[in-house]
Design brief:
- By secondary structure, the protein is an alpha+beta fold.
- It has a single domain, classed as Alpha-Beta Plaits (2-Layer Sandwich), CATH 3.30.70.
- Helices cover 31% and strands 37% of the residues.
- The protein is built from three helices and four strands.
- Strands 2-3-1-4 form a four-stranded antiparallel beta sheet.
- Helix 1 runs antiparallel to helix 2.
- It starts with a strand and ends in an 8-residue tail after the last helix.
Length: 108
């Protein structure tokens, strides 16, 4: 099993928790960590500085498309950040935890 972290940000903690809970309940993620961050970015020609909540979603690589779809379904942003980060080193026990707490999705 190949494990990944999928990262996204939300405008507020309520939206972040809603997405996190949906992913864990549906076994698309084994764990989701939420962190408050300040983001500085360019958007439609303006410089923006906003408080956001970042989500680090631990899942199987095979579930990326399904997780991406769920994020888009529940997210308020027009262009949500959805980034996959491969986990190249981890303890076997943690990888087992991810595998045991996620379902394997086959996307055709």
């Amino acid at each position: 099993m190949n494990a990944v972290i999928i990262q996204t940000t939300c405008a507020d903690e309520k939206e972040a928790k809603n997405i996190a809970k949906a992913l864990v309940i549906e076994k698309l993620a084994a764990c989701v960590q939420l962190h408050d961050v300040e983001s500085i970015y360019a958007w439609q020609g303006d410089l923006c500085c906003d408080n956001e909540t970042i989500l680090n979603i631990k899942t199987r690589k095979e579930n990326f498309e399904k997780v991406k779809s769920k994020i888009k379904e529940l997210h308020s942003y027009d262009v949500p950040e959805i980034i996959q980060i491969d986990i190249t080193n981890s303890s076997k026990k943690y990888l087992k935890f991810i595998g045991e707490n996620t379902i394997w999705m086959i996307i055709f």
